[in-house]
Design brief:
This protein is an alpha+beta fold and 594 residues long. It has three domains: 195 residues, Phosphoenolpyruvate Carboxykinase, domain 1, CATH 3.40.449; 276 residues, Phosphoenolpyruvate Carboxykinase, domain 3; 84 residues, Phosphoenolpyruvate Carboxykinase, domain 2, CATH 2.170.8.10. Helices cover 30% and strands 22% of the residues. The strands form six sheets. Strands 11, 12, 13, 14, 15, 16, 24, 25 and 28 form a nine-stranded mixed beta sheet that branches. Strands 1, 4, 5, 6, 7, 8, 9 and 10 form an eight-stranded mixed beta sheet that branches. A five-stranded mixed beta sheet has the order 2-3-18-23-17, with helices on one face. Helix 13 packs antiparallel against helix 14 and helix 17 packs antiparallel against helix 18. It starts with 6 loop residues before the first helix and ends with a helix. Bound molecules: guanosine-5'-triphosphate, sulfopyruvate (SPV) and manganese (II) ion (MN). The site of guanosine-5'-triphosphate (GTP) has 22 residues, from helix 9 and strand 17. The site of manganese (II) ion has 3 residues, from loops.
Length: 594
């Protein structure tokens, strides 16, 4: 039975049923009873595997096809009516043509399958920030993941109401998981997402990147708010005051890790704490007090498994110990638990690797093979996180003091620097570059421009997006958050990371917060303000002030090279490039000549 009387929903659902012709239709109410029945069904069919219920209660395992393990940026489209509105950084096709191309692929695609209709809210139910989506899918895996990642079920239809037409229409079918016909398509002007021939993460959990970033960034531009690829954390000082920081790093560049970091011992003793509000996406609005306020629209973490361990990210690991879905990690067949590279130094001998082959994990990894896919993931409920913020469900969100940009740069970018102004900060975000990772298909480790970590996620013309950032700065005026850039990934001549990273990143956050409160000094460099090396607290750390000085060094020759790359990148945007950014580039060049 339909879960809503909303005629806009019913009409669209009818159309999608007529198109995909499912054998059966199930409205997802989100009840425990329904979820348990779906889990049992998925376990019985082999789609999911029940893990050791003593060690990992409520946890399930799933494996996707080897050709379907990451986002597919080359098959992701922004179908605005005008090509110009998608801009030079997005794939584009005329929406009419795209609908015409995909309609035959969806025609009858669910004829031997069940259609699940998933109502969900991005953002806490009842919050003015929140928005409703409905995802139609033929995958139980999607339903079970959406249950963790969003506020799902009947309550989302209550939030939408009986009349509103303001919901995002998501249509997903696994179809034949055919990579040649895989499409992840956003139609921003229609509030619509069509995804076909994938069953993996960001391609199919349509509330996440497709809605909460691509569609929402477009909505945010029109409605005067921001949807960003950012974590949100609260840093509590010994006086009990909490400052909120958001940070945009590209995929697999450390958002989940920073969002949940455990302070180094010397900080813990003093009483510092970090609270996690979100690990991937922030929706931000100007609040009644004129400050920028942020919510996390998600309800769970879809986190990178490899590298997660008791030392690097104990909070993430703890989050995955119950009611979690693991995708493409390895199985320890001795006790039916999970394993991935970097969990510990003991790969299970009796293992099943991520593609499903039974192997001796010790020998297999010794030969240089990976037991878990580098982009294998856990889907964990946010409430599992030991450091989840008390504001996680707050309808108003949290006030943002600092916005941090960052990426993986072996050289060039220093450990930390501060922008001179909001406008300069927008420039700093716009010139972000980072080495590519396994989170998307394609080459790994190649430096590319990834402005604000939004290159794969901006639902409209990137230059209009920058203009929107500049406008938000004007609205915020002197209440605007301060903007910073960090780089945890500088390497030495042997390619080793110089900065210890992880929990020790708090040492940099401390300087950032102190700058926001006017409590820390800075020196002006060609690229912005930097701490004096001795202003980064190294207590309890095996690193010298000289090393930090090296990490903060701005190599003018490298930066002059960098400006050439920025010119080339900016040239793509033609007349749309905001004058303010051209001015900032000119200032940078002048500073480098000084
Ligand atoms: P997405 O979920 O794809 O958006 O990724 P993310 O930005 O949340 O990245 P995540 O925190 O999952 O980290 C990705 C990888 O970077 C993991 O393998 C981490 O171990 C590694 N990493 C995270 N933080 C640091 C750090 O401070 N230093 C170093 N060297 N590696 C880090
Ligand atoms: C990312 O790639 O930035 C992710 C994972 O957070 S996915 O949901 O697949 O986009
Ligand atoms: Mn992400």
């Amino acid at each position: 039975m339909a879960l809503t009387k909303n005629p806009n929903v019913l009409k669209w659902v009818d159309e999608m049923i007529a198109l995909t012709k499912p054998a059966k239709v199930i409205w997802i109410d989100g009840s425990d009873e329904q979820m348990n029945a779906l889990k049992e069904e998925a376990i019985a069919s082999g789609e999911m595997r029940l893990l050791n219920q003593e060690k990992l209660p409520g946890c399930l395992y799933h494996r996707t096809l080897p050709n379907d393990v990451a986002r597919v940026e080359d098959r992701t489209f922004i179908c605005s009516r005008n090509k110009e509105d998608a801009g030079p950084t997005n794939n584009w096709m005329d929406p009419k043509e795209m609908y015409a191309k995909l309609t035959p692929m969806y025609d009858g695609v669910m004829k031997d399958r069940t259609m699940y209709i998933i109502p969900y809210s991005m953002g806490p139910i009842g919050s003015a920030f929140s928005k409703v989506g409905v995802e139609i899918t033929d995958s139980i895996y999607v339903v079970l993941n959406m249950d963790i990642m969003t506020r799902m079920g009947a309550r989302a239809f209550e939030q939408l109401g009986d009349e509103s037409n303001d919901f995002v229409r998501g249509l997903h079918s696994k179809a034949n998981i055919d990579p040649e016909n895989r499409y992840i398509v956003q139609f921003p002007e229609d509030n619509t997402i069509w995804s076909i021939n994938s069953a993996y993460g960001g391609n199919v959990l349509l509330g996440k990147k497709c809605f909460a970033l691509r569609i929402a960034s477009y909505q945010g531009k029109n409605e005067g708010w921001m949807a960003e690829h950012m974590l949100i954390l609260g840093l509590e000082n010994p006086q009990g005051e909490i400052s909120y920081i958001t940070a945009a790093f590209p995929s697999a560049c450390g958002k989940t890790n920073l969002a949940m970091l455990i302070p180094p011992e010397v900080y813990q003793k003093k009483g510092y704490k970090v609270w996690c509000v979100g690990d991937d996406i922030a929706w931000m609005r100007v609040g009644p007090d004129g400050r920028l306020w942020a919510i996390n629209p998600e309800n769970g973490f879809f986190g990178v498994a490899p590298g997660t361990n008791v030392k690097s990210n104990p909070n993430a690991l703890a989050s995955t110990r119950k009611n979690t879905i693991f995708t493409n990690v390895a199985i320890n067949e001795d006790d039916n638990t999970v394993w991935w590279e970097g969990l510990d130094k003991n790969p299970p001998e009796n293992a099943t690797e991520w593609k499903g082959a039974h192997v001796n994990g010790k020998e297999y990894t010794a030969e240089g093979n990976k037991l878990a896919h580098p982009n294998s993931r856990f889907t964990a409920p946010a409430i599992n996180c030991p450091c989840i913020s008390s504001e996680f469900n707050s309808p108003n969100g949290v006030p943002v003091s600092a916005i941090v940009f960052g990426g993986r740069r072996a050289k060039t970018a220093p450990l930390v620097y501060q922008a001179r102004s909001w406008q300069h900060g927008v420039f700093v975000g716009s010139i972000m570059a980072s080495e590519t990772t396994a989170a998307a298909t394609g080459a790994v480790g190649v430096v590319r421009r990834d402005p604000m970590a939004m290159l794969p996620f901006c639902g409209y013309h990137m230059a209009d997006y920058w203009a929107h950032w500049l406008e938000m700065g004007e609205k915020l005026g002197d209440k605007a958050p301060k903007i910073f850039n960090v780089n945890w990934f500088r390497t030495d001549d042997e390619g080793h990371f110089i900065w210890p990273g992880f929990g020790d990143n708090l040492r940099v956050l401390e300087w950032i917060v102190n700058r926001c409160n006017g409590e820390a000094d800075a020196v002006e460099t060609a690229i912005g303000y930097e701490p004096k090396p001795e202003d980064i607290n190294l207590e309890g750390l095996d690193i010298t002030v000289e090393t930090v000085a090296g990490l903060l060094n701005v190599d003018k020759d490298l930066w002059k090279e960098e400006t050439k790359g920025i010119h080339e990148f900016y040239a793509k945007f033609g007349d749309k490039l905001p004058q303010a950014l051209k001015d900032e580039l000119a200032t940078l060049e002048a500073n480098l000549e000084k």
